[in-house]
Input
Amino acid sequence: MEDKEQVEKTVNRGGRTGPRRKRYTYEEKLRAVKLHLEEGFNAVLVCQETGVSPSSLGGWLARYRKDGEMGLRREWWARAGGGGGGGGGRRPRGGAPHARGR
Output
């Protein structure tokens, strides 16, 4: 039987285990993006300095280039249909939505 801590970790994280992901504020995201784009710091150095993963910084840079500072705001991004919603708007493997069973 699993110990109590492992069960709680699994239950509290929707079945996922491992460390929690850090949530970055808008200001933290903007600082990292501007360090790279405006100050000219290497992306690897920005990640080391800020503690952000390269994949997170890459995503923020892409959203900043596409939508400017608003692209870094979580509440705006959620309303615009991006990230955080699970499937990311992808269609199921069968093609168009609701195509199965017809």
User: Anything to note?
Assistant: Residues 85-92 have pLDDT under 50 and may be disordered. The two ends are 44 Å apart (CA to CA). Residues 21-76 form one domain.
